[in-house]
Amino acid sequence: MVLGRSEHGNFPVEPVTLKILVAGGFGVGKTTLVGAISEIRPLRTEEQLTEAGRPVDDTSGVEAKNTTTVAMDFGRITLREDLVLYLFGTPGQERFWFMWDELSEGALGAVVLADTRRLEDSFAAVDYFERRSIPFLVAVNCFDGAARYPSDSVRLALDLDPGVPVLLCDARDRESAKDVLIDLIEHAMRYTADHRQPVRS
């Protein structure tokens, strides 16, 4: 059978579209990951950081960062002829978290990007998806100069359930980001199957 065709081979099949969130703390690489993998020019809603925002915008560890996402990043990638992913990067700062509920509506799952230099910034995203039973994985963005830790150490530090995958990635690299998304889809499918309610006769 040829992907993207009906069983009779005459009519194109509409691709399955899946919604994926890319979440995590401020400056962890969400915009970078969406931009690295998107096959279209990504939609970005970045604004310059200002002096007025310094009291509420913690830039510790990312002092060189001078912009922030205020609504979302959006990108698209076609994994196969019959499978398209829509990527939504969430804003990382607490004052924009009110948008997460709307962005997560209908999402298959989420990638929580983490930075080992500011691992505590991942707690909010992990807690958000755990509370809402949205399948997610943690992808540690391997920044230049950042310490590397085994996946089990990251899992312990974030107090993750054993079933939550922890991966290392480079958000700048398209193939690395693609591998993360494929792993997320596989995890989300297993999670959904495991948590499906039995049908009562």
TrEMBL record:
InterPro entries: Gliding_Motility_GTPase, Gpn, P-loop_NTPase
Keywords for this protein: GTP-binding, Hydrolase, Nucleotide-binding, Receptor
UniProt entry tagged with the keyword GTP-binding: yes
Record-level Gene Ontology MF annotations: GTP binding; hydrolase activity
SUPFAM superfamilies: P-loop containing nucleoside triphosphate hydrolases
Family label: Belongs to the GPN-loop GTPase family.
This protein's name: Signal recognition particle receptor subunit beta
Source organism: Streptomyces murinus
Phylogenetic classification of the source organism: Bacteria, Bacillati, Actinomycetota, Actinomycetes, Kitasatosporales
